[in-house]
Specification:
The protein is α/β, with parallel strands linked by helices. Helix content is 32%, strand content 18%. The protein folds into two domains: 98 residues, Diaminopimelate Epimerase, Chain A, domain 1 (Roll); 223 residues, TIM Barrel. It contains eleven helices and 17 strands. A hairpin with a 4-residue loop joins β2 and β3. α1 runs antiparallel to α2 and α9 runs parallel beside α10. Its EC number is 3.-.-.-.
């Protein structure tokens, strides 16, 4: 294992920001990955000091559906979406049974709550269910209210339907290493000489802006443009809410997608591409990469690229390492896969649930040209504050867009 070293914080020239706050470079922290018996991604690391998110409201169905573990719903101020988790016991997991249960949950949820615009369902094997980051579901479906009749025809085996995943994805072997690190810190794992080289690259990139040597810490500041990015996409409850908000605002973003999520929810990834968003690579299993073998790192990036491109039909250009953990090997493999490793200038800590007011204040105070804003696809407070943040950015004349457009204008 290589030693971990601290790259000091850098203060950029011309750093006076709106509100008087200096523009500080991300501060890499010293952390060492620790072995874990859990499957990486099944139990995600939680930043120290993080507060639990508020419990989502649940919709009850009467009579109950025995296989329905929970049915949660949420809104974004314009629409409401529900997500049902169905656990199937062994013995009857046929495709016909998966379809029938999904139809029952969707149709009864829409009838029980008229405010719902869409119901999404994830069907899992009860014996192996490990939460959202665990083994892939057996079946998923996304059903807008207006397409219920179409979905019913599909569930009866009489037609096709384009917003489903019917299982059968090839099994993958995830790495067995995860690190308990803050989500808001950049951590560079390398030798002393590698640290010096990386420090120089980071300093130049942050002072001048733009991608250099396959890394992007900050965009150019000669245009009033900043990148809006979301990690951990797509989530079956939050993705429709997020895409609805940015669509209404006329904003395009970069969504860093976990490969396994692209496999399980391909229709959401397709929605991103069709709506003009940029789809980035966030590894296949959402694992911390330092400490893994070259073959493991290569598999994480290549498999995620393949899963995303299979849906979008486009090559993937940008990559963000989970947790901000990276090493010379990470950067080398990313370059080999044709990826620019992308960091951020502004993380409001939405994943730690500090409160809507805190997240919004941090976003607004750090908004500036050339910035790269980090939010999370599945963080409730990101959904809560996004509408107001987009309004403030528009009033200040800072256009929010994709990482690609920040670096290479159209």
């Amino acid at each position: 294992m290589k030693t971990t070293v601290l790259l000091g914080a850098l203060t950029l020239p011309g750093a006076a920001a709106q509100g008087g706050a200096p523009f500080l470079a991300p501060l890499p922290q010293v952390r060492t990955p620790a072995a874990s018996a859990a499957v990486p991604g099944e139990v995600q690391p939680v930043a120290p000091g993080a507060r639990p998110a508020e419990a989502l409201p649940r919709l009850g169905l009467t009579p109950a559906v025995p296989e329905l573990e929970r049915l949660e719903y949420r809104g974004n101020g314009f629409i409401e979406v529900a997500h049902g988790v169905v656990l199937l016991p062994a013995g009857n997991q046929s495709l016909a049974r998966r379809r029938a249960l999904a139809l029952e949950v969707v149709s009864r949820a829409l009838a029980a709550r008229p405010a719902l615009s869409e119901v999404d369902v994830s069907v899992y094997d009860r014996a192996t269910y490990g939460g959202f980051g665990g083994p892939l579901p057996l079946f998923t479906a996304s059903v807008p209210r207006a397409r219920l009749a179409e979905f019913r025809t599909y569930a009866l085996g009489q037609s096709a339907y384009d917003r489903v995943y019917e299982g059968g994805a090839p099994a993958t072997t995830p790495p067995t290493l995860a690190a308990q690190v803050r989500e808001d810190a950049l951590t560079f794992f390398g030798s002393a000489s590698e640290r010096l080289r990386q420090s120089l690259t980071q300093s130049v990139s942050q002072s001048r802006g733009g991608a250099r040597d396959g890394l992007l810490f900050r965009g150019p500041t000669n245009r009033r443009v900043a990148a809006l990015t979301f990690d951990d996409a797509p989530h079956p409850l939050y993705e429709p809410l997020l895409l609805d908000l940015v669509r209404r605002a006329g904003v395009r973003a970069t969504l860093f997608v976990i490969g396994r999520n692209a496999v399980a929810y391909p229709y959401f990834v397709r929605d991103m591409a069709l709506q003009g968003h940029e789809v980035g690579n966030h590894t296949y299993h959402h694992v911390r990469l330092p400490g893994l073998s070259p073959a493991q790192v290569q598999a994480e990036l290549a498999q995620a690229n393949a899963a995303i491109s299979a849906v979008t039909g486009r090559p993937v250009r940008y990559f963000r390492p989970p947790g901000g953990d990276y090493s010379p090997l990470t950067l080398q493999v990313a370059r080999q896969e044709g990826l620019t490793t992308t960091f951020w200038t502004d993380d409001p800590g939405d994943f730690a649930n500090p409160g809507d007011a805190v997240v919004e204040s941090r976003l607004v105070s750090h908004l500036r040209p050339g910035g790269i804003v980090l939010l999370h696809d599945n963080a409730p407070e990101a959904i809560d504050v996004l509408r107001e943040f987009l309004r403030v950015a528009r009033e200040r004349g800072v256009a929010l867009t994709t990482v690609g457009d920040l670096v290479v204008p159209r």
